[in-house]
Amino acid sequence: IRDFLRKKLPEYMIPSYFIQLGSLPLSPNGKIDRKSLENMEIKVEFDEEYQKPYNTIQQKLVSIWRKILGTDGVG
């Protein structure tokens, strides 16, 4: 998917990650249930290995982003 999108879109418009679903949740009317999509618990796994911050500035930035994003997966 990423290779196809690179041919059609500028880099900044390509998503950082993709989520594969078995099927889209549907409303009773047969339309995509957007609220269910928003509430889905999704775990994102990246191909790159975690790299620890290597100086105090990076440590501070990681701390700030962890608080903002509410996650430990910042590196």
Automatic annotation (TrEMBL):
<protein>
    <recommendedName>
        <fullName>Peptide synthetase</fullName>
    </recommendedName>
</protein>
<dbReference type="GO" id="GO:0043041">
    <property type="term" value="P:amino acid activation for nonribosomal peptide biosynthetic process"/>
</dbReference>
<dbReference type="GO" id="GO:0044550">
    <property type="term" value="P:secondary metabolite biosynthetic process"/>
</dbReference>
<dbReference type="GO" id="GO:0005737">
    <property type="term" value="C:cytoplasm"/>
</dbReference>
<dbReference type="GO" id="GO:0031177">
    <property type="term" value="F:phosphopantetheine binding"/>
</dbReference>
<dbReference type="InterPro" id="IPR045851">
    <property type="entry name" value="AMP-bd_C_sf"/>
</dbReference>
